[in-house]
Structure formats: C-alpha cells, structure tokens
Amino acid sequence: MLLSSASLVSPSVGGNGWSRPTALRISAAKQLTGRVVTTKADKTVGVEVVRLAAHPKYKRRERIKKKYQAHDPDNQFKVGDVVELRRSRPISKTKHFLAVPLPPRDTRRKSQLLPPLQSQADDASDQPVTAPPSE
C-alpha cells in the first residue's frame, strides 16, 4: 500500500533539516460491547464479548466469546445488563476497561416503526376521532 509522503513525514525536528516519519495510529478495540456475566467481586464486573470471525480452514463464520474484567465503581450493573467497555489505564492486573451503561435498545417491531400503508391510513380517516377528556 502506497501512502503519500506528506502523511508520514512530520515537520523537521531541530535545525538539521531531517524529518522522521510518524507512526500510523490504529484505533481499534477502544470500545467493546458485551453482556455482564458476573458481579461477585466488589467494583468489578465480568463482561462477555461475542464477535464473529471466519474459521481459518472452513471460512464459516463462528461466534468467538471472550471474557473481560471491567471496573464498575458504583456496583450499578446486574447480571444480564448490556454494557460498553471503554479502554482505560490499568486498574489492576486484569482490569483495563471501564464499564459504561448503554441506553436500552428499542424493542418495538419493525411494523410499528414504519408509517402506515395508504390503505390503512384511509381506513383510519373514515373513523371519527375522539378527543381525550380534558380536566
């Protein structure tokens, strides 16, 4: 892969005119999403992250589960909660993530999210509209 030299070269350091290439940063795996599987330790939750990866030989996608320990400072999560893991400084030997709550997913069906069909809208306009009782 050929990259332009302008993106790899930083301004010259010192007065000698030499410039050194800067490293390209890969920002993968800063955030993970998983389900809490254990809350037995104080201020710590065990989170299982599931991802899909191709099998090396058969190329079929399979689920790969990995368990991470995450910091939960307020002990607010219960088993089954879906959380986001944000990378942070090492908190202990095994804790390198901070558990952050995710807003609940919209569980409505797709038919409720779509606008009504033209025939359904005509049926609804034929029925009289009743006003809600006022107080």
Structure classification? mainly beta
- By DSSP (H or I, 4+ residues per run), the number of helices equals 3
General form = extended
Assembly of the depicted chains: single chain
> How can the largest sheet be summarized?
5 strands, mixed, barrel
What portion of residues belong to β-strands? 25-35%
| Span of the ends, CA to CA | 71 Å
What integer value in Å does the Rg equal?
26 Å
Order of helices and strands: HEEEEEHH
Query: What is the spatial order of strands in the main beta sheet?
Result: 1-2-3-5-4
- Tell me the number of strands: 5
| Average pLDDT rating | 79
DSSP helix fraction: 10-25%
Poorly predicted spans = 1-10
Concise structural overview:
The chain is mainly beta. The protein is built from 3 helices and 5 strands; from the N terminus they run αβββββαα.
